[in-house]
Amino acid sequence: MKRRAVEDADSRVRVGRGGFQGEEAVPQAELARIYQEYARPDLVKLLAALKLDKTFERGQGDCLYYRDDTGVEHEVLDFVGGFGTTFFGHNHPALVAQLRETIDAGRPQNAQGSIRSAAARLARRLSEVAERETGRAFVVSFANSGTEANEIAIKHAALELAERLDEVLEDAHREHVLLARRIAAHPRDLKADAVERVAGELAQPQIERLGDLIDWIDAANREAARTAPVFVCVEGAFHGKTTGALKLTYNKEYRMPNANLGIRSVFIDPQDASQVDREIGRNRRTFRKVSLGETGHLRIVERDVSLVAGFFVEAIQGEGGVVVLPTAFLEVLRRRATELGIPVVVDEVQSGMGRTGTFFAATGSNFVGDYYTMSKALGGGLGKVAACLIDRTRFRGAFSLMHTSTFAEDDWSCEVALAAVEMITADGGRLMRVAAEKGAAFRAKLEALAARFPDVVREVRGRGLMLGLELREIRADQGGLMWHADLTGNFGYAVCAYLLNAEGIRVLPTLSEPRTLRFEPSVFVEERDVDRVIGALERVCKMIRAGHSVGLIAFQVGRNESRSEFPSVVESMRDRLVEAPHPRAMRVGFLGHFVDSEHLSWWDPALAELNTAERAELLDRIEPIAEPAVLEQINVTSDTGDIVHFNFIGLPIGPMQIGRDMMESQGRRFRELIAQGIEVAKLAGCRVLGFGGYTSIATRNCTDIVDDAIAVTTGNSLTVAMGLQAMRETAAETGVALHTANFAAVGATGNICSTYAVMLAPQLASVTLIGRNVDDPRLLRVAAQVTGAAYEDLVRPQRRKRERGGTGQRKRGGLVEAIAASRAFKAMAGRPPGAETGTALFEALCAEMGDACPVRIAGRIDALRDANLIVCASNSLTTLVGPEHLARDRAVVVCDISTPADVSSEAARLDNVTVMLGGIVKVPGRADFHVRGLPLQHGEAYACMSETMLIGLTGITENFSVGHISPHQVRKIAQLANLHGFALSQAKWDRSF
Q1: Phi/psi zone of residue 428: left (φ > 0), alpha (ψ -120 to 50 degrees), beta?
Q2: How sure is the predictor about 980, in pLDDT bands with cuts at 50, 70 and 90?
Q3: What number of other Cβ atoms are within 10 A of residue 388's Cβ?
Q4: What pTM, to 2 d.p., does this model score?
Q5: How far, in Å, CA of 356 to CA of 601, rounded?
Q6: How far apart are CA 405 and CA 142, in angstroms?
Q7: pLDDT band for position 811 (50/70/90)?
Q8: How far apart are CA 149 and CA 144, in angstroms?
Q9: Cβ within 8 Å of residue 959, ≥6 positions away
Q10: What is the predicted pLDDT for the residue at 8?
Q11: Are the C-beta atoms of 605 and 572 separated by less than 8 Å?
Q12: E strands, 105-149, in order
């Protein structure tokens, strides 16, 4: 009864789509969230950003199927093929039937420590097939994945090397024992100075006795043998992601985090066969033994032994870009390996099982290995099985006890794999011939496409149904979006995202060569499906040629594109500046981002087709995978003849994305991008890095940056200097007299705005500091600084001389006169200027004058109505100043340096209002200076960018405008700007709207 009850309970448990039977299916969005939170966080972020985040529910043949959010099923043509796994397509009926038969028969999955019948038959069959291709018989060890198969090869090759070294050690030790015994029995056989002479040869003069000499040589031999084994691999190689296999994988992104673990590896260029001998020579060790000569003298016998445990190769590199290794290189490798007795491991994990037209891809290259590793298609697309085939003459019997795996050799996977091998080899290997024929036809069509678009396609590579198409590097004049995606290694993925979402075709790049699209359909792929892929690729090539990025990303913003021809933006991008550094130039960088989503079309003209909402959505899509890249490289020569090489490092995100990140995660993502930007600058050779917009805010005016390898600056000093000049000149032109002006600062607690207020205060009639909260201690500190500046002006008249500007001797403002006439000032006369004096004076003035105090604090934008000279420098994500906040009965000058702007366009259009966008600077000697995507005219730069250039021109290699800036820094950078020819841009202190 108990057994029956258990069976009844089990029969009720049936897993349905997204849960148990009877439960509702989990929506795709929720599945993605769960997968991200509990399994693959960064992968889901990448997939979602590109709209590759499909949940495929079923597969058949060369097609996969998913449902959209409305429940509608979509068919996708799958040319990824599980990275070579689905050679027979998804769920081939014969293989599914074999799996069901095995399960229905009740075959045990876990019967370790017994004779595994399916594994036995599969091992024999694999050895038979391999022997027909290589002329060798093999012993087979099983695993669950390709990387584990390579781990088996690593372990066995290391065992072979250990045995070779043990043999050398044992040979020397045996001779030494016999020598010691002989001399002990016949001391006169050894000349008196024999040990001394040999010790001298070995540079070991302290050795005087034969026993000590033998001990020293044996110890030196053991030390040489303890060196970690070396595996010689090929540049571009990919052998898996377990610890050992990673050491053999060329991609540094995967390999370097594990560089200090386990075995040693070296990588050689397959185009230079001489490197084979070079690495063999570099990794030799000399072993010695001492013997007795006929004359009674000792002699040293040396033997060089290679510590190379094995050569690892892929005849066709899959993840390295579908690269077929040169035959001449393989010939040299095979010859040297045979001469030295070193095994050659051929990785056929992706290329094996008939995909390239032969059972092993190496066979098509006339290359024979000593070991072969297999997986992927071996399981017929259903079983998780891998195998390492080792030449029977090399196989060490003890290894079958040393290497075991819990789930290897299971009947389910082995039976399916056996059925897959039988399908491939049936009818004299007909399916392999089909793969060769279909692959050749497919490749011919890819090559014809490449011939039509030689400016887009660099090369077609591969053999059989393992093919790759490498795109050329995107040029700077092909649009900002595609160029930036290519610079950051994401362009191949962007193309694949288009193919999936717009064309219903699934393709992916190779892992280590992201410009190479791989094609690995099943052997049953139909010609019409190949033609469909070629047609989609032709549309991609046309878009790339035209720089028509909007076509590639239209699906990202909900557009349905169905064009066959695409307008070109290439001509409009010819003026993009990418210049090599001048030999005399110091290299500097500037880290910036979009000021507004509207500026996307300035960066990439093709995006002009998008409306405001679509541009904002595109930036939202880009943000999770955004990476910094050097977008502009420009040499700037100053009036003194000094040269700086300016690198604009762009972050393709805008204020809305940054603000959301700051609110949701305290800016963690944005700070990650900034850290990456610093590394990009250092790789570009920059000695100085400037921060602009929110990059400065997020790093607390660069005080969070601690990096001795590069100097940093916020550029705030020149921003203030140029802004002050612009305000003075604009005020004069519009009839606003500074000494009678009522000044207001929006965002007054900020570094820039507070410095404006402090430096202008002695010239003004009044100052109003506007913040979010009137009780904010920072507002009180700024008010004290403003009051203190006026006090210093009164007690140190010589200060006025330093403040003379382009407009001549300035007048003392009404603010200073009001303070001079106050009882508070008279009571404090004689105190030294400073923070304490400023604070005490401000408090006394407020108590004495109340609302009439010339220095005021306000918590509302409405306070601007009394002002006719305004600085806006908030970090608000929305506009703050509308028409209703500004005076209408007088001229009003506004300097808006916020990103995005604080002043609305409606307010800026008022007849009595002139708005400037802050410190815009004319770059000396470069009328063509231009950073695309920023709201600047040719020849113009932001003041913060210009300060970065000035620091480079002056040769300063230490931090400059970091933290709170001082009036002294402002005056110093203004002098340097004048010296080198950086001037206020006339265009930007005229009316800007």
Answers
A1: left
A2: very high
A3: 27
A4: 0.86
A5: 45
A6: 8
A7: low
A8: 8
A9: 702, 711, 712, 713
A10: 42
A11: yes
A12: 138-143
Taking residue 773's Cβ as centre, other Cβ atoms within 10 Å add up to 11
pLDDT digits (tens, 9 = 90+) for 636-648: 999 999 999 999 9
Residue 213, Cα to own-chain centre: how many angstroms?
56
* Edge-first strand listing for the sheet containing 56-60: 56-60, 63-67, 73-78, 505-506
- Between CA 913 and CA 919, with CA 915 as vertex, the angle to 5 degrees is 155
Give the residues across from 588 on adjacent strands.
Answer: 646, 688
Phi–psi pair at 152, nearest 5 degrees: -60, -45
Q: At residue 666, what are phi and psi to the nearest 5 degrees?
A: 55, 30
Give residues with Cβ within 8 angstroms of 378, minimum separation 6.
Answer: 352, 353, 385, 386, 387, 417, 420, 421
DSSP-derived letter for residue 883 is G
* Four-residue CA torsion sign, 345, 347, 352, 358: negative
E strand map for 257-296: 264-268, 284-292
What single string gives the DSSP state of each residue in 379-424? GTTT---EEEEEETTT--TTHHHH---SSTT-HHHHHHHHHHHHHH
Dist. CA 672–CA 674, nearest whole Å:
5
Q: How far is CA 403 from CA 243, 262, 396, in A?
A: 16, 17, 11
419 is written with which tokens?
């059925």
Pairing mode, strands 73-78 and 63-67:
antiparallel
Which residue type, as a one-letter code, is found at position 628?
Answer: P
Confidence band, pLDDT 50/70/90 cuts, at residue 11: very low
Predicted pLDDT at 25: 65
575, two tokens: 């003026």
- Residue labelled with tokens 């105190």: 831
Closest by CA to 940, choosing from 953, 956, 921, is 921
A 10 A CB-CB count for 615 gives: 22
The strand order across the sheet containing 920-922 reads 940-942, 920-922, 983-984
Q: d(Cα 46, Cα 489) in Å, to the nearest integer?
A: 13
Tell me if 81 sits within 8 A of 529, measured CB to CB.
Answer: no
Integer angstrom CA distances of residue 48 from 32, 53, 495: 9, 5, 15
| Average pLDDT rounded to a whole number, residues 916-941 | 87
C-alpha dist (Å) from residue 707 to 87, 681, 959: 51, 12, 10
Residue 955: how many other CB atoms lie within 10 Å: 11
Cis peptide before 883 (omega within 30 of 0): no
Burial 241-253 (b: 16+ CB within 10 A, else e): bbebbbbbbbbee
* Bridge partners (DSSP) listed for residue 869: 743, 893
> In Å, what is the CA distance from 580 to each residue of 583, 584, 636, 709?
9, 12, 12, 22
What amino acid is encoded at 867 in this protein? A
Q: Measuring CA to CA, how many Å separate 647 from each of 159, 600, 714, 933?
A: 52, 20, 16, 15
The DSSP bridge partners found for residue 267 are 233
Q: How far is CA 569 from CA 63, 199, 603, 669, in A?
A: 36, 78, 11, 32
**What Å distances lie between residue 747 and 267, 757, 897, CA to CA?**
57, 11, 11
